[in-house]
Amino acid sequence: MRLAFMGSPDFAVPALRALAKAGHEIAAVYCQPPKPAHRGQALTRCPVHVAAEEMGLAVRTPARLRKAEEEHAAFAALGLDAAIVAAYGLILPKAMLDAPRRGCLNIHASLLPRWRGAAPIQAAILTGDAESGVTIMRMEEGLDTGPMLLKEAVPVTDATTAPVLHDALSAIGARLILRALDEDPPPVPQPEEGVTYAPKLGPADRPLDFGLDAINLARRVRALNPWPGTVAAHRGTVLKLLAAVPDPTRTDAAPGTILSGGYVACGGGTVLRLLKLQRPGKAAQEIDAFLRGYALPEGERLETP
């Protein structure tokens, strides 16, 4: 089958490789343009761009699509059976959605209609969902509103982190998109009830509010690392909290109060146990090693930066 592949981050790479390995013809790969990154701010290609060039595939990196009629024409001229979209990062206009013979199929990292939007993996962990999964959806102009072709679920536990769930769903997506192309299952409209949205995350989501209870704080740490991360301030130093779990201990201490041995009082009398932290300019450390080099005295406070 003659395809275009449209994706940018690590999440999309397994699907691209699986499609090529299965013998599909990848006429073009679309991804985000190279962007400044790292300390030197050198222009850096996204993971899909790197993988596509390694595979000898043609890569296109338009900065915009909505009013780029020359891109619409070039896309239509590819003569595609389908376009496969996985975390591409640009909204496809109707002219492009309608161009492939079987339309544009999206690999979406949630069980639609739950968690439409930009950050479904993190949202599932943040809200304590019992499961997440992948939906293969035929795209239309609305945000993740198109009819569903296939779904597969995975459990989300109290230990599930964003990277673990990301990798699991990425692998499922690569497998399901092959099935969708081979089987051409009938589209099923999304139900109108149960729709939720997962907004894009950014630096404003990093600070932790210790007025929340320990369960919700632990979820935030699991969901937001490595991006955008979670932080708290101690004596003006911003610390990254990389792993933490709720502790069954109860306390009367005010939220944010440091207890002994890396425990912190949280809202509702709950306690959060810190497991892994990082201070500026230093490597990440497990709590015991961290406390040998940086004191968190009992009775002092962790604040919201």
| Amount of helix | 10-25%
The average pLDDT is 97
**Could you give the count of β-strands?**
16
The string of secondary-structure elements, in order, is: EHEEEHEHEHEEHEEHEHEEEEEH
The CATH topology of the largest domain is given as: Rossmann fold
What is the 3D shape?
A: elongated
Measured between the Cα atoms of the first and last residue, the distance is: 52 Å
Sheet with most strands: strand arrangement: 5-2-1-6-7-9-10
Cα-atom Rg, whole angstroms?
22 Å
* CATH architecture assignment of the largest domain: 3-Layer(aba) Sandwich
Strand content is: 25-35%
Q: Output the structural class.
A: alpha/beta
Helical stretch tally: 8
CATH homologous superfamily of the largest domain, by name? Answer: Formyl transferase, N-terminal domain
